[in-house]
Write a structure and sequence with these properties.
The protein is mostly helical. The protein contains six helices and two strands, in the order H-H-H-E-E-H-H-H. The protein has a two-stranded antiparallel ribbon with strand order 1-2.
């Protein structure tokens, strides 16, 4: 069965590209393939590698390419989903898959697995207790 865009997840390599696109240094918001490569840490991937991942991300519905004005064949890539929207989707799936859709079970798991400082715990409690 083919997954819908809402069900698709990013691979680690795709996530690296999305993180760059979610934090663009340009005011316009989109980046070209060369600009994406510039923001990669060393060793930088090959142009063809990034181009392949951009095609995959486009086909999955995570990004949209647009021809750059006056840029000939150059495309600028824009995210179609925000980091927050994607994180929310993934965390809902984690909660459903691993914790029976129970927020209490998920939070208690992380509280037991992580070493939470007293300061962090107080901050978490204040977030929970603040009026909605």
């Amino acid at each position: 069965m083919k997954k819908t865009n809402e069900e698709r997840q990013l691979t680690k390599a795709e996530m690296e590209i999305m993180n760059i696109l979610w934090s663009p240094p340009t005011p316009e918001g989109g980046l070209t393939t060369h600009q994406i490569i510039e923001h990669y840490p060393e060793p930088k991937p090959a142009y063809s590698t990034i181009a392949t991942f951009l095609k995959i991300l486009t086909n999955k519905g995570f990004i949209q390419p647009r021809k750059q004005e006056g840029g000939g064949k150059t495309f600028v890539f824009y995210p179609l989903i925000s980091r927050e929207e994607y994180t929310t989707r993934v965390m809902k799936e984690v909660k459903s898959t691993f914790f029976g859709n129970s927020l209490k079970s998920m939070l208690s798991f992380f509280a037991k697995q992580e070493e939470v400082s007293e300061e962090d715990l107080q901050e978490i409690l204040s977030l929970i207790n603040r009026p909605r």
